[in-house]
Amino acid sequence: MPDACEGASRSAGRLAGLSVAPETGAHGRSADDERERIDRARAGDLDAQAWLFDEHYARVYGYLRSRLREPADAEDLAMEVFMRMLDALPRYSYRGVPFISWLMRIAANLAKDYYRERGPAARTVSLADYLEVDAGADPAERVELQLSIAEISGAMEHLTELERDVIRLRYAAELSIAETAAALDKSENNIKQLTHKALVKLRKALGSGNG
C-alpha cells in the first residue's frame, strides 16, 4: 500500500509555500499506458486492476483524509472507492474525463454519504488533523512545520467550500488543473481562477496571522 503519510508531508510543504501544483502529473504514467491498463482491467485482468489500485490509492486516500477526521474512516472509504471502481469498470467510458478524476467523483460522493450518515460533526476536520509531522525530523523543523500546519488550518476557514475542495484536490490529492476541472465538472480556466483566489486568501490570512 502506498505511504499516505509521505503524501501528506509533501502536501504540507507545498501548502506552506503556497505554490501552484505542477500542471502535468508527477506520477510517471502516460495516458496511453493507463488506457491500456484500464482496458485490461475491464476485461478482468487482475494485474491491471492491482496496477490501477497501486497507481491511484495514495491520491484517493489523501483527498478523503483531508475531508474526514478519522484516518480509519478515510482508509475504509478509499477501499470502497476501489470496490465501486471494480463494479463500474465494465460500464466505464473515457468521455474525456481522466481516470483519477472519475475516481475522485466517486470519492466525493462517498464523503457526502458519510457526512449525511454521521451529521454535521463529521465535517469538522482541519489540515492539522490530516497532515502529520515526521517524528524523525529535526526538532526545530518539526516545530516549524507544526506551526505552519496550524496557521494553514486556520487560514482554510477563510475559503468557500468550493475553494477548499479545489485546494484539497490540487494539494492533498495532487491533481493537475485539468484533472481537478474534470473532477469538479468545471472549466480549466475556472479552476485556475479558483486556485488563484484561494491562494490569495490563504496568503492574506497567513500574513495577517503573522503580523
| Low-confidence parts | 1-26, 139-147
CATH fold-level label = Rna Polymerase Sigma Factor, Chain: A
CATH homologous superfamily identity = RNA polymerase sigma factor, region 2, helix turn helix motif
Give the total of domains. Answer: 1
Number of helical elements: 10
The chain-level mean pLDDT equals 77
| Strand coverage percent | under 5%
The biggest beta sheet reads: none
Distance between the termini: 42 Å
Percent helix range? over 70%
Oligomerization category of the chains in this entry: single chain
Question: What is the string of helix and strand elements?
Answer: HHHHHHHHHH
What class do helices, strands and sheet pairing give? Answer: mainly alpha
- How many individual β-strands? 0
How would you describe this structure to a colleague?
- The protein is mainly alpha-helical.
- It is built from 10 helices and no strands.
- The chain has helices at residues 4-17, 31-42, 46-65, 71-88, 99-118, 127-130, 139-156, 161-172, 177-184, 188-210.
- The longest helix has 23 residues, at 188-210.
- It is globular and about 55 Å long.
How would the blueprint of this fold be written?
Blueprint: H1 4-17, H2 31-42, H3 46-65, H4 71-88, H5 99-118, H6 127-130, H7 139-156, H8 161-172, H9 177-184, H10 188-210
Helix pairs in contact: 1-7, 2-3, 3-4, 3-5, 4-5, 5-9, 7-10, 8-10, 9-10
Summarize the structure.
The protein is an all-alpha fold and 211 residues long. The protein has 10 helices and no strands. The protein has a single domain, classed as Rna Polymerase Sigma Factor, Chain: A (Orthogonal Bundle).
